[in-house]
Amino acid sequence: MGLVKPEVTKFAKIKVLGIGGSGCNAINSMILNQAILGVDFISVNTDAQHLLVSQAPIKLQIGEQLTKGLGVGGDPELGRKAAEESRDKLAEAVSGADMVFITYGAGGGTGTGTAPTLAEIAKKAGVLTVAVVTKPFHFEGTRRMLVAEEAIANLRDKVDTLIVIPNQRLLEVVDKKMTLVEAFRVTDSVLGQGVQGISDLIVMPGLINVDFADIKTIMNDAGSALMGIGTGSGENRAVLAAKTAVSSPLLEVSIDGAKGILFNITGGPDMTMIEVDEAAKIITQAADPDANIIFGATIDDNLVDLIRVTVIATGFDEGVGSNSTTRCFCSRRNCRRSTSFSD
């Protein structure tokens, strides 16, 4: 009997779409940092001139007839009409994807107006659809904040998971001498970390791997989600990173109300299983005892004496099941029943 060659495992196809000025800037940051691997980047904008400076391999101009290559002047209704004009283009952009990230700055015109249409197209195609969206800084004005809040509420039921990053809270953790340009770069960086924390679990080889189906159990029809990011170096770096993540200013409420938690522990080649276990303990102990917890640990050769923990907490909305069980992807000998780890 001849040998049967096993099929090569196919990773889930992930596409990241940045919409409007803020979204396209975030895409540029992700590409230039070279931190997110194994995904397709797509910039979407009504502003043809802004697309010229996009680093994305795929640039999608929408609403060409409506805006004649110009922006929409911060008008979400024009952004919506531009998206409707270019529905076929948007459908082609998400075609073939298993998972789509939609990222933009809420309160603007193109991103705010286009995101709901894009999300509807992706979800109708059966694509796991995750939006990672920023809320404006207070200095951007009351009108922009009101537009952003209305847009976020409108988007919530059109995506599987909606992660909102409140820019104002970033000011709690940055240098007071930071310039305006640097502040917006920080928001771009955080958007990238949110995408990376999830995508790395799927496409990057790791100490503890997570299947795409497991990601879906946490993020499919999950509603609103919160994200926390923490880093640690030196002695007890894993513990520090985990504690920072669960107390992150980006978490507007405690994760103990979440019914689903997805977290990723990333370190260099010197990261140990003990460190992974220590970080995981802190997060599981902070979570609801009945929460469905899925996590992975990935290796990034560029991290020297540094561990990064990204936590995504879901299931705050009504209708999310509460009968889930905790799951872990470590071997039994590394499990501690007191931390809710079980096979």
Question: What does this protein look like?
Answer:
This protein is α/β, with parallel strands linked by helices and 343 residues long. It folds into 2 domains: 14-200, Rossmann fold; 225-339, 2-Layer Sandwich (60s Ribosomal Protein L30, Chain: A), CATH 3.30.1330.20. 38% of the residues lie in helices and 22% in strands. The protein is built from 12 helices and 11 strands. The chain has helices at residues 20-33, 48-52, 64-67, 76-85, 87-94, 110-124, 142-155, 167-170, 180-203, 212-219, 237-246, 273-286; strands at residues 14-19, 40-45, 58-61, 99-105, 128-135, 161-166, 206-208, 223-233, 260-267, 292-299, 306-314. It has an 11-stranded mixed β-sheet, sandwiched between helices. Helix 1 (20-33) packs across helix 9 (180-203), helix 4 crosses helix 6 (110-124) and helix 11 packs parallel to helix 12 (273-286). The longest helix has 24 residues, at 180-203. The protein starts with 13 loop residues before the first strand and ends in a 29-residue tail after the last strand. Mean pLDDT is 85; it is low at 1-9 and 318-343.
Helix and strand sequence:
EHEHEHHHEHEHEHHEHEHEHEE
Q: What is the total domain count?
A: 2
| Helix content, binned percent | 25-40%
CATH topology (level 3) name of the largest domain: Rossmann fold
Question: What is the secondary structure topology, with strand pairs?
Answer:
Blueprint: E1 14-19, H1 20-33, E2 40-45, H2 48-52, E3 58-61, H3 64-67, H4 76-85, H5 87-94, E4 99-105, H6 110-124, E5 128-135, H7 142-155, E6 161-166, H8 167-170, H9 180-203, E7 206-208, H10 212-219, E8 223-233, H11 237-246, E9 260-267, H12 273-286, E10 292-299, E11 306-314
Parallel strand pairs: 1-2, 1-4, 2-3, 4-5, 5-6, 6-8, 9-10
Antiparallel strand pairs: 7-10, 8-11, 9-11
